[in-house]
Design the sequence.
């Protein structure tokens, strides 16, 4: 970030500040004592805004306690273990093969030396499991994914899910035929086209694979066999002692990827591989010794749905881990932007680059979004944990839609933000040591695996449309979109021309207005998509109509997810008991809400939900809130409690190391 | 791209298509003979839109000739050379050090073996030079940058420019003191804070550096010396024979970067390094044997401006090369999306994923933008070449602003598009061999070097505001924004409420409407920024006011650049003589224009330039044009003439190799 030149309006001669003076200032700037003094606010903007509000003094401890909750301890344990073991830290430059080996050693270290056993928590305390995954991911995202593949059946299945899905899951061709004589299943991949690729852990380290295959049972009718649909089986792929590939199993290495090269992805083909009958994962369907099939679920479709339903944990994990990546990235970019100084008014010290409106514009709505997604994914994990305990049907449906929506929405946002953070840090963002490159490359695929984001958003919209239809047939709505039940009729009326002109700050910062705006948009989109689909289905058929409305459908899904995120954020603000922490949260919540409304202002204007004067007021307030958030940005970032040895980027060091770094790189 | 499931509206059972049948279809799909038959258009959408238009048959040869012009031959020569030398192709996995060595060998190969001498063209035929750079960049972007640093004085200076600028260029502290006794300059870096980092080619291979330093001359007054301001000097840094670092020169390696690791960036520090007087680059100021200073330019500021003005070539090169990267990326993603098939209406063959509206939405406006930026940067190169010949002052100013604007606008767009392309290709986009990872990592820094994009946009806006001010004082406007002269008053009047409601396709596709919309927005933004700056300057001072309006300023700059791009695109359509090529260009030009208007529809609605019915019509037409462009997407991409051995990504292969690949990866 620099100022501009060569213009009559901008021809000030900026005062020169010697390097030593800069370092002194930097050092004072990063001293914790200074952080709470109003003096850290830039001269320029204090002049502008001091009259409107006094700087908020945030109780950092209360805020971080409220944010991080009960799983802080285990995360600290992960951080401390890797901090104490430099030999287990991933170097900047490492070959694919070395990275795979290191990643395996990291995992062994975590389990055997640090004594952290993630597998234990997968079922009994998922929130703790995801907290470990987040912490481990901050060490090396490959390790996070490797752990997921190794320890969670969900993740392992998920690798199949993505690629099965691609080849039309219900039509997948791998078979598991029961042999009643030997009491075994025989697994077969019928041809090259049915090979499953990109299976994590398969190329080098895996001993078992969880395989989706059509269960084939012998019958006494003319066909001789019966296809019971897709089931999951545990198939050994390598010898437990020699680690040799087992007979009939063919493994190919998927090679070098854009990121996550610590994970060894491979392709598997089976040629008459025999496994014991017990290796069928029999929760939704079982085969007896004499080849009789039993299931609590009546149809192939129901069983298939239930089997796939187990995959939801992978999406919950990715959404949660993606917020973790966003926290690291935003922390590095914001800490750097607070420390880095450049130019300033004539005869005055240089200002932090975070004092530039353009830098606030890049980073402050991002910080607000990070908080928003934090609370939304914490809520998702709670619901998921509850679901794992109760198996309540409505809750299953709810978690399914919510995990699909949050996974796609959050991972897309984080992916874009990683680029924004790199750019916001200029040339230093491009030094590999400052981590944006590897974070982006590793996180990138979050948008695709466990279901492509574009596909998942369609599932969200499809679910919403189904419920909309049921509503008109007198049915009920699941919890996540129950807001539509109450409000649909209200929202579909013409907007009130009086409130459309209200532009006061109190009104714009009222959660009722914000929620109303989000839900109004979702309701309108839901109704208009439903009508368009109905119309086009007559001429184009279901497939053609859906495709004709696809962009519209995706917009609906995003709008709905944003509504859910805001509602959870507003709850989180209200539930925070410490006043200064609550005030800080309220600030970022308002910024999140108004920034989103402004980003889609065209839609609001088109239906006159917002009049021109109000649109202008929203824009102005968004810029003002970005400035307000800038003033507590340090507190907000510190509440993530990411120590220097976790963020690791030299440009974001809070100790003297930063001053040393800036001196070396020639500021 | 997949369809959706689990919804009553979407419960078709898709027909199973065996792998062999798929490959047959794929093979027929990629046969050139098929490409011009209407049958390639998907069944679904033909039904929808066949009534409105018949498929355009594009004369591909005419289109590519019009696009690529006279520098095709030398680009082919580059492509062929590297195709014939597998030993010079960059492998997927390579260490930093090996990459640096390989990159040097690639450069030697290009110059010594292929006999291509880029340096010859830097001054005498810049268009040819940039064409070579584009071609070389498609082999390995590190090579493109290495070549630029090695062969172009502009680029070499540029490395200094970026980092000097960061430390306040006019205040840079390195000195070149003239020693009249020995007839030499003595170069000194006064302290660590003045070390220049990130200099391309410095860490390993460079023999010389072009150094910016303050020229210090001895005087007879009491001060004893006189500071003549910043000048450029050629300083040898390594011995020509032994390659040892020369005495007084200290070099540090900048290490591993996010991308471009074939380029060896380093830091330089000088301790009393002596160079002959002749090593002063004396175009704008010279020193005689007896220490007398002469210059055609009267002030330090003027000379400084002229010296920096030489750097514009680097920006022209980056804008041009960035379009080259965008072409490769869009080609890979679109060819893959045409070949890859997934799902479809019941009982019908699967459709290409480019038949999905969401995929069109991702890729077709991007293809249109690629064409838009192609013509804009070709125009920039023409103007730059003219400037290098005539040194016309108005042209210099014009090229300066245009290169700053296009460099920032185009590189930001390409950076985002690389991520979109990766996502559009799903899991296969994540395989390193398919290139999105390395293209993105290499291109990323284009947004930062040669001037950070946020800074360059401010320069554009500052220049625009300066001219706006002069206009009101009776001055003239330079060529690039001469449109404002004619239209400012018209545009600032209230929009016409009648035309604001016109929604016919002929009207929306009329270049006059499109240009008017772009220019209207720019004019409004220019006036409103000027007024706001004036108002705020009174209370906040120049610096504070500029910062207070910074987002507004950046929007103005982008809007202006978009206006220029559209105007050039419209010219390019009109100048194309072959009717089918012109029709194809008109299609993408309309998509470019309307997509941009739709993206900022809030602004247009807020001032009632566009009524709600027109906004809706624009949106609808944008989707329809995306579909139309999809039907000629193959022709449009083929016109870039990027053969398989240049794109290299297996997923985009046009030969049987693709069918083999799809078979192997298990479609």
Sequence:
């Amino acid at each position: 970030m620099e100022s501009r030149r060569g213009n009559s309006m901008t021809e000030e001669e900026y005062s020169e500040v010697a390097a030593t003076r800069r370092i002194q200032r930097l050092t004072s700037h990063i001293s914790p004592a200074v952080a709470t003094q109003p003096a850290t606010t830039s001269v320029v903007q204090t002049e502008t805004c001091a009259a409107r509000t006094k700087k908020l003094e945030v109780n950092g401890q209360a805020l971080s306690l409220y944010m991080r909750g009960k799983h802080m301890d285990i995360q600290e344990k992960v951080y401390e273990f890797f901090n104490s073991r430099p030999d287990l830290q991933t170097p900047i430059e490492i070959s694919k093969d070395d990275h795979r080996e290191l990643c395996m050693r990291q995992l062994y270290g975590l389990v055997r030396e640090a004594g952290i056993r993630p597998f234990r928590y997968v079922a009994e305390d998922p929130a703790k499991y995801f907290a470990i995954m987040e912490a481990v991911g901050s060490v090396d995202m490959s390790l996070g994914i490797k752990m997921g593949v190794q320890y969670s059946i969900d993740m392992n299945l998920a690798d199949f899910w993505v690629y099965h899905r691609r080849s039309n899951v219900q039509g997948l061709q791998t078979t598991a035929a029961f042999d009643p004589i030997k009491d075994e299943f025989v697994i077969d991949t019928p041809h090259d086209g049915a090979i499953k690729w990109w299976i994590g852990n398969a190329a080098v380290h895996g001993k078992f694979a969880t395989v989706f295959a059509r269960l084939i049972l012998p019958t006494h009718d003319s066909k001789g066999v019966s296809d019971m649909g897709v089931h999951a089986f545990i198939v050994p792929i390598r010898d437990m002692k020699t680690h040799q590939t087992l007979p009939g199993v063919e493994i190919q290495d998927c090679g070098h990827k854009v990121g996550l090269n610590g994970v060894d992805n491979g392709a598997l083909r089976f040629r008459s591989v025999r496994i014991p009958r017990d290796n069928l994962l029999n929760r939704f369907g079982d085969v007896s010794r004499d080849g009789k099939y039993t299931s609590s679920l009546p149809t192939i479709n129901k069983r298939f749905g239930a089997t796939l339903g187990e995959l939801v944990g992978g999406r919950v994990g990715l959404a949660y881990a993606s917020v973790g990546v966003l926290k690291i990235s935003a922390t590095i970019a914001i800490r750097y932007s607070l420390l880095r100084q450049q130019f300033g008014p004539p005869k005055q010290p240089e200002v932090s680059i975070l004092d530039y409106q353009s830098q606030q514009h890049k980073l402050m709505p991002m910080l607000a979004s990070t908080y928003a997604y934090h609370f939304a994914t914490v809520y998702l994990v709670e619901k998921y944990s509850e679901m794992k305990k109760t198996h309540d049907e409505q809750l299953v449906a709810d978690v399914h839609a919510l995990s699909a929506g949050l996974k796609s929405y959050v991972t897309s946002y984080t992916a874009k933000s990683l680029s924004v953070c790199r750019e916001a840090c200029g040339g230093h963002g491009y030094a590999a040591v400052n981590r944006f490159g590897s974070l982006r490359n590793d996180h990138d695929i979050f948008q695709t695996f466990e279901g492509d984001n574009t596909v998942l958003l369609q599932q969200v919209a499809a679910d919403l449309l189904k419920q909309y239809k049921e509503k008109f047939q007198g049915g009920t709505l699941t919890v996540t979109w129950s807001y539509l039940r109450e409000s649909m009729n209200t929202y579909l009326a013409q907007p009130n021309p009086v409130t459309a002109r209200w532009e006061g700050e109190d009104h714009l910062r009222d959660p009722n207005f914000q929620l109303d705006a989000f839900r109004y948009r979702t309701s309108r989109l839901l109704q208009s998509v439903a009508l368009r689909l109905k119309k086009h289905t007559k001429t184009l058929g279901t497939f053609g109509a859906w495709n004709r409305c696809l962009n519209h459908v995706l917009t609906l899904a995003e709008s709905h997810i944003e509504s859910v995120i805001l509602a959870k954020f507003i709850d989180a603000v209200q539930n925070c008991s410490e006043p200064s922490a609550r005030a800080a949260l309220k600030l970022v919540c308002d910024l999140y809400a108004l920034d989103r409304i402004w980003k889609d202002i065209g839609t609001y204007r088109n239906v006159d939900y917002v009049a021109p004067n109000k649109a202008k007021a929203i824009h102005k307030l968004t810029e003002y809130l970005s400035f307000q958030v800038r003033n507590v940005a340090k507190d907000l970032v510190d509440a993530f409690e990411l120590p220097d040895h976790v963020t690791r980027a030299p440009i974001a060091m809070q100790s003297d190391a930063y001053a040393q770094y800036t001196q070396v790189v020639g500021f």
Chain B touches chain A through 122 residues (CB under 8 Å).
